[in-house]
């Protein structure tokens, strides 16, 4: 129920009382059934979470899309996902090159930034969207190697937590873009990095 309340509040800005998971499903369908929504569920590890929040696109308005990120392919099969996209990871060399290009505007890292760049790159595990998000986050929040160390340490600490479905984004077309990244204690620039990258790719493929 907690996640259902968060989803409804993030879009409607209305604190709705729910008495059960089933009641939450009905509220989502009733209140969001006419809205065109792109809902991204990040880091899903339980089928029950998907079924509680967005079991089917028919719960939302025409043209709505549900995007799920997970490491569990069987979970996607259990949820009846129509299209599965396997993210291609970059090798360490290409990942570092991409990170530097974004973090330093295509230039060579200044003195003192090389080792930190390698550390940040490894944190992304070769995932392009994560590389872009981390690079944008660090470029926007830190200027010196020491500040990068502190920012990267905070990021690593946040990612060590069991974030789960508290990290999700809801895009309601024609309305404000909302983010629940604050629930997992990550800074807003990082959240926007994920959001913008995901949205750009979604619109490009349309």
UniProtKB/TrEMBL annotation:
Pfam families xref list: NB-ARC
Keyword Hydrolase: yes
Protein name in UniProt: P-loop containing nucleoside triphosphate hydrolase
Domain of life: Eukaryota
Single biological process term from Gene Ontology: defense response
Domain NB-ARC: residue ranges: 23-104
InterPro entries on file: Disease_R_plants, NB-ARC
Gene Ontology molecular functions: ADP binding; hydrolase activity
Keyword terms, alphabetized: Hydrolase
